[in-house]
Design a protein that fits this description.
The protein is of the alpha/beta class. The protein is built from 15 helices and 17 strands.
C-alpha cells in the first residue's frame, strides 16, 4: 500500500492495498528477523515515555484546569500529545457507523459477526428496518492488507442506504496462533467461496483493490462448477486484474525486484509473546515505515501543523489529523505465503490474464462466467492501479452477455477516490446501485460509460 497525495477533496489519503510498493522503499534490510524483535523492544522501552506524556497531556490539557487556556499550558499539552501519539501502539479502529438514511428516514445500525474463521470474520451492518423491507445483499471484500477493513468505512457508508451490507474483516496475522495453520492466496479464495455460500445465491460481491483478482477467481471457479450460490453480480474497483496494461511504478518495482528479493528482505517471524509467535509474516511496522518514507516531508509537515493547531486551539483541524493518523498508523501483519503469492501471481507473473492461474490444481477460467454481471470501476488519475488494469476483466470474461457488463471511468479521482470521498458518493455509488438493481431483476442493456465532468 502506498500513500497518495490527495483525494478529490484535497486531503492526504491512503492508496493501494498489499502492493509491493511499500516493501520496495525499505531498500535492502539486513537481518529482518531480529529487526522485528528490536522493534518490539523499542516499543516496550518507549512505554514509560508514552505513559508520562499521556499524563502530562491530561494535566496541561484538562479544560477544568485554570492554566489550560494559557499559551504555555497549550504548548506543553500539544507537545505531550505529539509525543504520546508517536510512542503509542495503534489498535484496530472501529467502523463507528451507527446510523444511515433510508428513504429519507434515519435508521440505526448494529454490527454483527455472522461468520468466522481464523483469518477473517464477516461483519453484517444490520439495519433497523421492518421485516418486509428488503434490499439487495452486498458483500464488500476488503483487502487483506497493511491496514484494516475500516479503511473502507466510506465505502460501507456510501452503500448502506440502498443495500444490505456485509464486509470481510481480515485478522492481523501476528494475532493468529501458528496452530491455526497457514493462509495463502488459495485460502483467500476458499474464504470468499465459503462466505458466498453462507450468504446465499442472491448476493452481489464488490472487490476493492487487491481482492479483485481472488474474487474474479472465486466466481470463475463457482461458475465452472455450476455452483448455485454464484453471486448475481461482481463489482471490481481499482484492482490489478492485468498489471501489464498501463503499468505504474508499483508494477515496475515488482518485476524489477523479483519474488526472491521480497522473500529475503521483508519477511520475518512474529516474535514472543504475540499469539502468532514464529509465524512468518510481512510485518505491519515494516509496511508503515515504507508508507511514511515515501512521503516523509508531507508527514513531517502534517505533524508540525497539528502541533500548531493544538497550540492555537484549532480543534477541527486537529481532530481531522487525529482521525486520519489513528487509521493510518493502525497496521496489521500479512502472512508471508499470502503476500508473496499475491505479488508473484499478480504483479510478476500475471497468471490470471495469461490464463495460467490455478486454485489447488484447478484452472481458473474467467470465460466460464456466464450468469454473473460484471462492473469495473477505475479512476482517471489512479497511479497505483493504472487505467485499463481493472477494465481488463471484461476482456477475460468473454461469456458474460454484453448487456450485463458495465465499465465506469471516474474523472478527476486517484486510487482512493475510486472507493471513497465526495465523488465516490455523488457519482460512483449511483452507478453501482443502478447496476445492482438491473442485475437483481436480470439485465437491461448497459454500455461502457465515462462520467462527464
Amino acid at each position: 500500500m502506498t500513500l497518495e497525495p490527495h483525494d478529490d477533496a484535497g486531503h492526504m489519503v491512503i492508496g493501494e492495498f498489499g502492493s509491493p510498493a511499500a516493501a520496495g522503499s525499505h531498500g535492502t534490510l539486513i537481518g529482518t528477523s531480529p529487526l522485528y524483535c528490536l522493534h518490539e523492544m523499542a516499543y516496550a522501552a518507549a512505554r514509560p515515555t508514552h505513559d508520562f506524556a499521556d499524563m502530562m497531556k491530561f494535566v496541561w490539557g484538562n479544560p477544568a484546569s485554570p492554566l489550560a487556556s494559557t499559551p504555555p499550558a497549550r504548548a506543553l499539552a500539544a507537545c505531550a500529545e505529539v509525543i504520546e501519539r508517536a510512542t503509542r501502539r495503534y489498535g484496530k479502529p472501529h467502523f463507528g457507523l451507527n446510523e444511515t438514511i433510508v428513504d429519507g428516514e434515519a435508521v440505526s445500525i448494529s454490527e454483527e459477526v455472522v461468520w468466522k474463521r481464523p483469518f477473517c470474520q464477516l461483519l453484517h451492518f444490520r439495519k433497523d428496518l421492518p421485516a418486509s423491507a428488503t434490499q439487495p445483499r452486498l458483500l464488500i471484500v476488503a483487502p487483506m492488507s497493511g491496514h484494516y477493513a475500516t479503511l473502507l468505512r466510506g465505502t460501507v457508508a456510501g452503500m448502506l442506504p440502498e443495500h444490505d451490507v456485509y464486509i470481510t474483516d481480515w485478522a492481523d496475522a501476528r494475532m493468529v496462533p501458528l496452530a491455526d495453520g497457514p493462509f495463502d492466496l488459495d485460502d483467500y479464495i476458499d474464504y470468499i467461496i465459503e462466505i458466498l455460500h453462507h450468504l446465499g445465491g442472491d448476493t452481489h460481491v464488490m472487490a476493492v483493490c487487491q481482492p479483485s483478482v481472488p474474487v474474479l477467481a472465486a466466481v470463475a471457479l463457482m461458475e465452472a462448477a455450476k455452483d448455485e450460490f454464484s453471486p448475481r453480480s461482481m463489482i471490481l474497483m481499482g484492482g490489478p486484474i492485468d498489471t501489464r496494461v498501463n503499468p505504474t511504478a508499483v508494477n515496475r518495482l515488482a518485476e524489477e525486484k523479483g519474488i526472491e528479493w521480497f522473500r529475503r528482505n521483508v519477511i520475518a517471524p512474529v516474535p514472543f509473546p504475540n499469539p502468532g509467535m514464529l509465524r512468518l509474516v510481512y510485518p505491519g511496522f515494516l509496511q508503515l515505515s515504507g508508507f511514511v518514507s515515501m512521503n516523509l516531508d508531507r508527514h513531517v509537515n502534517a505533524h508540525r501543523e497539528f502541533f500548531s493547531h493544538l497550540v492555537t486551539g484549532e480543534s477541527g483541524s486537529a481532530e481531522r489529523h487525529r482521525e486520519f493518523y489513528d487509521e493510518y498508523f493502525a497496521v496489521m501483519d500479512l502472512t508471508a505465503e499470502f503476500y508473496l503469492q499475491t505479488v508473484d501471481a499478480g504483479f510478476i507473473r500475471h497468471l490470471l490474464p495469461k490464463g495460467e492461474m490455478t486454485h489447488r490444481g484447478t484452472p481458473v477460467l474467467p470465460e466460464a462466467i456466464r450468469n454473473v454481471g460484471l462492473m469495473t470501476v477505475e479512476g482517471e488519475r489512479d497511479d497505483i492501479s493504472g487505467v485499463g488494469q481493472t477494465e481488463a476483466a471484461h476482456r477475460l470474461c468473454t461469456s458474460i452477455p454484453a448487456d450485463r457488463k458495465l465499465h465506469w471511468l471516474q474523472p478527476r479521482v486517484g486510487h482512493y477516490g475510486v472507493f471513497s470521498g465526495s465523488r465516490f458518493v455523488a457519482e460512483i455509488v449511483p452507478q453501482i446501485a443502478g447496476f445492482i438493481r438491473r442485475n437483481e431483476r436480470s439485465a437491461q442493456p448497459s454500455l461502457r460509460v465515462v462520467a462527464s465532468d
